[in-house]
Fold this protein.
Amino acid sequence: DADSVKGKTFTVTTDTTFAPFEYRDSNGELVGIDMDLIRAIAKEEGFDVKIESLGFNAAMVATQSGNSDMTIAGASITDERKQTYDFSDPYFDSGVLMAVPESSDITGYQDLSGKTVAVKTGTEGEAFAKSIAEKYGFKTISVDQTSTMVQMLQAGQADAMFDDYPIVAYGIEQGNGMKAVTEKEAGNSYGAVVAKGKNQDLLQAFNEGLAKLKANGTYDQIMEKYLGNNA
Ligand code: GLN
């Protein structure tokens, strides 16, 4: 049960740049909603975490292969992933949103014909873009990091990108030169992830800790700290 995690140290893998869920601040510290959540839950439940910032796909693979105990990386709870992973209770409702450069003429998917679209390997954004690529006549390029997608748009190497809406909104607010011209797609909620059937005590402790943070106001504080008015 959740008590058996006390005093133990768990390896937790995460994405590199998925602000405001995980990113490095100006001091190089790994911060964000996921980082505050897992640290607060660990403290609440009496375990320690060793966090490794690997990138989304690498983080998920590490947990699947047993090199990591848990992934917390804004990972969407999907039926397909449930075949190989167990998820915690949901802690955030998300959805995919397209971003284009501020100067772009693209106003919707119908303008993507002949264009290049940047997506992140192994993500829901990638899956969604690929699911409509043929219909709208664009090609996708998969990269490992959100920051790379943004750089590709800034450099004119791609015309649009798909990422989760809070990440797109945060980037725009930070002045990354992008804009959103469509509505977000209905998406799945985020959950912490363990390999299927493994680390069940840790998963239980996560859920227990999350419930405590929701009850004592810490969860709301963390959301407000990073999402402000968007929380
Ligand atoms: N929520 C998306 C997914 O799970 C993206 C996660 C991420 O890029 N860190 O596929």
Summary: The first helix runs from residue 33 to 45. The chain has a mean pLDDT of 97. DSSP finds seven helices and 14 strands in the chain.
